[in-house]
Amino acid sequence: MTWMITGGAGYIGSHVVKAMTDGGERVVVVDDLSTGDPGRLPAGVPLVRGSVLDRALLDETMREHGVDGVVHIAAKKQVGESVQRPLWYYRENVEGLRTVLEAAVDAHARRFLFSSSAAVYGMPDVELVTEQTPCVPMSPYGETKLAGEWLVAAAGRAHGIATAALRYFNVAGAASPELADPGVFNLVPMVFQRLAEGLPPLVFGDEYPTPDGTCVRDYIHVEDIASAHVAAARRLGADPAAELVLNIGRGEGVSVAEMVRIIGEVSGHTGLAPEVAPRRPGDPARVVASAESIGRELGWTARYNVRQMVESAWKGWQHHHPG
After folding, report:
1. What's the CATH architecture for 173-217+251-320?
2. Model-level pTM?
3. Catalytic site residue from 11, 89, 141, 208
């Protein structure tokens, strides 16, 4: 079978493409290259440049390549930006998804894998976040992901499509330096940037009800994210009635202070004490995934630990920021 992977030239998408092609799957990538890079793709993988809002382009791609499964990763994903530009986020993320689903239905593709996010949960007040934890997103970005899950499940039931929505937690690391995330939007690259400028890492709040007072998060290596997609894709191929919603996490919490310490050790910047800044509005004290469901449903478990994530991310940072 052939999978169409939207957003496949991006940071997470390129890792999914690599994992699926390494696993013997045929893929074609659709990406508008707004954040993607063709150089991330393995040799021989077709790239169609264009928007997921372009129905004619999707129809042509699916017909030309005989697509019978879709992995939909393309999306806008910055929480703060979504607050400033909600209409754009709904257009890109929800209308874009609807357009891809419509094309998949008309092309008789019977497998659809959707990249969702832990942002659907908002501020859960639980020790471990399960798939049954109430979803109360706190940003337009999180809302678009939750609406996307509803849309995928409804279309799957109506049109006989096997579906899965994978809720990513905090993604870090890289399979190789070239595939690392060059952006500075998440904790690990933000700390790298501060250290490179000779500035102390910023910690937003140190009075949370956690062991060291800083927020606790579940960090997951991007290679583990990719392997979870491979496992989910195989399940959809074997189970035409599948309708799955699954967390991708390690089930282990790491505090921001602990993560900053590990980053300092790996990068060789151990002399700068973190600077404590005021809390950011909406930051929950603890968000850690339960990974029981994905283990039970897909036989999947995370392979990499936090230090391995940071080590691979640091090599990627050095690659993208030489000197």
Report:
1. Alpha-Beta Complex (3.90)
2. 0.96
3. 141
